[in-house]
């Protein structure tokens, strides 16, 4: 984990951060969509009811406070923009910790220009808050593995508890990290006791907030699996926001090729926790999102891992191959923004 010992500074990545900010603030004055109006209506519930609401109580409380200043669509959407920028400013440390310094710049650009990510950041949705909380949790986890200091594990607990108040389903990240710690227990033997004790608060909160919903999921939703065609179309929307079937399928194939190349680059995952973590962190939420629960915050939480895999995959090829793949990705993104 020595690759995380010198965290990248924001100055090095100010250009992709500025580009992401510019794309996020474009078109904020459009009328609210049906989904956005539903979130706004839910935020008007009494504060005590909001805290007991099973879906995104933390985001609804923030939206309630934010909308008390103004109900203009531009102002309402700025909450997600600021949360998205905050998470995006933190993500270089995650990308470097997962993929190394050479994959960080490419992954930053993949994220900064991704239409799906930009659209989620400028919408009234808990996705940006989920991205911020999970990104902070991953940073604390990586730093805890590197230094073994208690403030980092305390930070992980706080970030994980906040993510559970966004949605109980984000507990998947704690399970992924537990699986990684169990698999690489010999390498991080000195961190094990503190880590497993730190699982008590998140597990307790998950049981209190989401126990009933989890039982319903096991009993009903887990058997309700998406068709392959629906999952493929949903996957293609990560690379383009256009609904035309040929474009969605071609974009999905491009993204799948990049991710598959990244998986090949991580083939020695049994020797490197970073590789195991990036595979698990990309795979678990994507399976949940594609197969059972089409809540977009699952996909948003997986984006740092997916972008890392894609960037690592591109670097496997010779110069002409890298140029071709970057060009294909640029055309895909440009088409999405041109016809948005």
Could you walk me through the main structural features you see in this protein, from its secondary elements to its overall organization?
It is a single chain. The protein has 340 residues and is mainly α. It is built from 17 helices and no strands. Helix 6 crosses helix 16.
Strand-and-helix sequence, N→C?
A: HHHHHHHHHHHHHHHHH
Can you give the helix content as a percent range?
over 70%
What is the subunit organization of this protein?
single chain
Radius of gyration: 19 Å
The major pleated sheet works out as: none
Q: Count up the helices.
A: 17
Mean pLDDT: 90
Tell me the overall shape: globular
pLDDT under 50 segments (min length 5)? 1-7
Quick one: how many beta strands? 0
C-alpha termini separation: 41 Å
* Structural class determined from secondary elements: mainly alpha
Strand content: under 5%
Topology, please?
Elements: H1 14-24, H2 34-42, H3 47-52, H4 57-67, H5 73-99, H6 101-113, H7 115-121, H8 127-147, H9 150-166, H10 172-183, H11 192-197, H12 200-219, H13 228-236, H14 245-265, H15 273-292, H16 296-314, H17 319-338
